[in-house]
Specification:
single chain; seven-stranded parallel β-sheet; four-stranded mixed β-sheet; Alpha/beta knot; 60s Ribosomal Protein L30, Chain: A; RNA binding
Length: about 250
């Protein structure tokens, strides 16, 4: 799989950008900030406030060009010349999780979910339900940025996030590791409430408009649905994730 399976700094940190999110991260005793990067062009009271807050928290402040900050933030408009790398203690590479002596038995795989609010709410729900892994690929899914953190109510920092290059790569790795892949589809006869699950199962949640992509779809073991007696075509993907996550909680009780 080449470079896709190598460990990236993005497998260890959540990067927040903008003055307010960075100050909030520095002020939160429950979080460990690895470093703050401030643009050379950042001057005045705002930059001074960040430097004071970082010093009080014992966090190193690095200077970089404004262009470099934009590249690292992955956001060209709202970084305000500052970002912070926050340690996410439960975030790691999918390859590392699968190599564990006891790999996670139930995981979610996000495929093409591009709305930050949905990704954030899924992370919050899955963490609340005690799931052992939410696979968030680096490509094709909303970046783990302040919008995702806000939607998760801060839970994203401690969510069991598993990183890899793409959803297809994740599906291949899961299949090789002996997982059955289940995808949510409205027309499936088998429902999430009556499907027989093996010891290792991964559930694919597709994007807001296109659903599960073809590349991942061809590796799916079985399609399952959420029964909806009411006349509604589909649920929002984060609502579907909640139904699924807490059905897994019910089964485990």
């Amino acid at each position: 799989m080449g470079d896709e399976s190598t460990v990236s700094p993005k497998d260890r940190f959540l990067t927040v950008y903008g003055r307010k999110p960075v100050l909030e991260a520095l002020a939160d005793d429950a979080l460990r900030v690895d470093k703050v990067i401030l643009a050379d062009t950042a001057r005045g009271p705002g930059a001074a406030e960040i430097q004071r807050a970082a010093k009080a928290a014992g966090v190193v402040v690095q200077r970089a060009s404004a262009h470099r900050v934009k590249v690292l933030a992955g956001n060209g408009k709202q970084d305000q010349g500052v970002l912070a790398d926050v340690v996410a203690p439960r975030m790691r590479a999918l390859s590392a999780a699968l190599a564990d002596r006891r790999p996670p038995s139930r995981v979610l795989l996000l495929d093409g979910i591009t709305t930050p609010a949905n990704v954030g709410m899924i992370l919050r729900t899955a963490t609340a339900a005690g799931l052992e892994g939410v696979i968030v690929p680096r490509r094709g899914v909303a970046a783990l940025d302040p919008l995702v953190v806000k939607a998760s109510a801060g839970v994203a920092f401690r969510a069991p996030v598993l990183r890899c290059g793409s959803a297809r790569e994740a599906a291949e790795m899961l299949t090789e590791a002996g997982y059955a892949l289940y995808a949510l589809g409205a027309s499936a006869r088998t429902t999430v409430f009556d499907v027989d699950l093996p010891q290792r199962a991964a559930f694919v949640l597709g994007g807001e408009t296109a659903g599960v992509g073809e590349e991942v779809g061809e590796l799916v073991t079985e399609w399952v649905s959420i029964p909806m007696p009411g006349e509604v075509e589909s649920l929002n993907v984060s609502a579907a994730a909640a139904v699924l996550s807490f059905e897994l909680v019910r089964r485990a009780r």
